[in-house]
């Protein structure tokens, strides 16, 4: 029979393993087989001191370019800290990062023997040093229950007196992927103590559940034991009155602290049956300021009109940039066909966009302050809505219009002119051909309505108007009654990213700006005025006259002055 090179190599490996088993007094019960994935396996019992450890060596599909790996025969067993979770493969001397096809599977078996002989009996901690740094994500990959405890939150837990119990609230965030993972975080400590969990604490989201914090007496130590042994012992550390409380609750989270270390238990009782789960406590990496301007925009307040595809992306990006205050205005509801471009997801379908976007921003940065209003700003808007928008804009540092609605733009432009507030706006042209980003800053640019007129005049000089398409959908009918062409999520994303940069420039000092001009027509493909993708046309505005400091709307004292001038008395 003719064998392929890979088959011939496997035959030689099997012969080598058989020879090793015959010549060694530390290998028993060798047996070749095939696992559920169709991979060749070699089961054996390794003798390490007084222990008999059933193991399984598996040849991966990419062998010999990747090494065979060794794991416990029992998928629930953890043999060493050099192991990828319970039942996972052992981290041995021969790994994908240093394996060479000239190495042999017998070398891998000998490496497993060396590791497990260095691991004391009934102890998962061996004296073998790790060959590579144990990064936190890899460590957590084998932990299905995790208790994330930042240092500042741990410090607050340790303020409680030893021997005392305190009410706490925690968030539980559940994710189901290859396996179910549950992440617990502290939300609040005490009912009336006034202790406030730092911003690196609970975050936003997850199910809020009650729990108990118990501070062990100072002399009590939390021993370094295997988790299966530790959780039962820790539960017995609780005083009888507290155990009775937990049992009566049926399902309770219990955080225990000895002033230096914290653990989290979940105790569930069903009649006389009790189940205790131990969470793996870990400290997240210290947060690093990754934003370009750091804390510059933490106190900045931005009003975003429109929470559609463009507005939702702009809001999310600004939250990541560190903007600390938002007011979101949109009276529309999210539907399933909006999901092709919106920052929101299926969980938000049927909800008002502004309110859902508020939740999205809080999940990006729990420290932001976000208001959301389902405010209708169409041309038929009531006087009350106009007055409400005027009040909102007066408290903001910047207004962004992403609606592509001429009536909304005129309303926002008029109020910004009266209140001397900068306005930034953007448009995505039909079919994803390109877009416009523009700004109007008091005392630098013309007022927004004047700036918009100059943009139209600039287009008129080119001999054609921008391909606006129908409002809001960014679609345009193709030739010969073809299906409409719509802007893709990527197209909208490009304009959104540039609009965010334009907004940050409007808030920054002149010398820090990235975009020197107040307006840009940005091409994403050939067509209209664009000769090629990313063909960009800057527009320079004319004089900035028109901003009148201290101007007031006709709804205020200006009306009274007019009435006095024309001789009409107020009958109110």
Automatic annotation (TrEMBL):
Signal peptide boundaries: none
Which InterPro entries does the entry mention? ThiF/MoeB/HesA, ThiF_NAD_FAD-bd, Ubiquitin-activating_enz, UBQ-conjugating_enzyme/RWD
Q: What keywords does the record list, in alphabetical order?
A: Nucleotidyltransferase, Plasmid, Transferase
* Coiled-coil regions, chain positions: none
Q: Which GO terms describe its molecular function?
A: nucleotidyltransferase activity
Does Nucleotidyltransferase appear among the keywords? yes
The THIF-type NAD/FAD binding fold domain extends over 297-429
Q: Which Gene3D superfamilies match?
A: NAD(P)-binding Rossmann-like Domain (3.40.50.720)
Protein name listed in UniProt = Adenylyltransferase ThiF
Which species is the source of this protein?
Phaeobacter piscinae
Q: What is the lineage of its organism?
A: Bacteria, Pseudomonadati, Pseudomonadota, Alphaproteobacteria, Rhodobacterales
């Amino acid at each position: 029979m003719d064998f392929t090179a890979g088959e011939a190599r496997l035959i030689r490996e099997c012969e080598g393993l058989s020879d090793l088993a015959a010549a060694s007094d530390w290998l028993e019960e060798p047996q070749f087989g095939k696992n559920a994935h169709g991979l060749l396996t070699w089961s054996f019992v390794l003798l390490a001191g007084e222990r008999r450890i059933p193991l399984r060596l598996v040849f991966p599909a990419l062998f010999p370019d990747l090494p065979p790996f060794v794991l416990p025969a029992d998928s629930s067993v953890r043999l060493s800290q050099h192991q990828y979770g319970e039942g996972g493969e052992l981290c041995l001397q021969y790994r994908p990062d240093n394996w060479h096809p000239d190495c042999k599977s017998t070398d891998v078996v000998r490496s497993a023997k060396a590791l497990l002989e260095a691991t004391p009996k009934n102890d998962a901690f061996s004296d073998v040093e790790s060959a590579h740094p144990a990064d936190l994500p890899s460590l957590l990959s084998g932990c299905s229950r995790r208790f994330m405890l930042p240092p500042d939150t741990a410090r607050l837990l340790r303020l409680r007196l030893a021997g005392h119990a305190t009410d706490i609230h925690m968030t539980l965030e559940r994710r189901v992927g290859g396996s179910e993972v549950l992440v617990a975080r502290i939300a609040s400590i005490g009912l009336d103590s006034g202790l406030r969990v730092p911003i690196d604490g609970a975050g936003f989201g997850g199910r809020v559940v009650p729990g108990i914090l118990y501070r062990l007496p100072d002399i009590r130590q939390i021993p370094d034991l295997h988790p299966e042994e530790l959780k039962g012992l820790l539960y017995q550390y609780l005083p009888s009155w507290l155990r009775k409380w937990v049992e009566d609750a049926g399902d309770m989270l219990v955080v225990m602290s000895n002033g230096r270390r914290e653990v989290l238990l979940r105790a569930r009782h069903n009649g006389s049956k009790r189940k205790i789960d131990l969470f793996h406590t870990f400290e997240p990496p210290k947060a690093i300021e990754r934003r370009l301007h750091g804390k510059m925009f933490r106190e900045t307040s931005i009003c975003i009109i429109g929470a559609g595809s463009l507005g939702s992306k702009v809001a999310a990006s600004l939250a990541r940039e560190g903007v600390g205050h938002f007011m979101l205005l949109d009276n529309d509801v999210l539907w399933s066909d909006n999901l092709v471009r919106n920052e929101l997801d299926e969980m938000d379908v049927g909800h008002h966009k502004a309110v859902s976007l508020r939740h999205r921003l809080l999940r990006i940065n729990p420290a932001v302050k976000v208001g959301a209003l389902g405010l209708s700003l169409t041309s038929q808007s009531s006087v009350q809505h106009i007055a409400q928008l005027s009040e909102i804009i007066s408290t903001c540092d910047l207004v962004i219009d992403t609606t592509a609605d001429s009536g909304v733009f005129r309303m926002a432009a008029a109020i910004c002119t009266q209140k001397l507030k900068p306005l930034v706006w953007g448009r995505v042209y039909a079919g994803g051909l390109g877009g416009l980003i523009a700004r109007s800053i008091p005392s630098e640019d013309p007022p927004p309505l004047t700036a918009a007129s100059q943009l139209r005049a600039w287009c008129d000089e080119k001999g054609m108007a921008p391909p606006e398409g129908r409002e809001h959908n960014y679609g345009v009918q193709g030739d010969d009654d073809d299906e409409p062409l719509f802007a893709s999520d990527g197209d909208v994303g490009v304009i959104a990213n540039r609009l965010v940069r334009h907004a940050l420039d409007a808030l920054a000092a002149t010398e820090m700006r990235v975009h020197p001009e107040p307006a840009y027509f940005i091409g994403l493909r050939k067509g209209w005025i664009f000769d090629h993708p990313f063909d960009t046309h800057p527009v320079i505005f004319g004089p900035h006259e028109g901003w009148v400091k201290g101007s007031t709307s006709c709804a205020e004292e200006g009306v009274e002055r007019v009435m006095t001038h024309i001789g009409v008395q107020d009958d109110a």
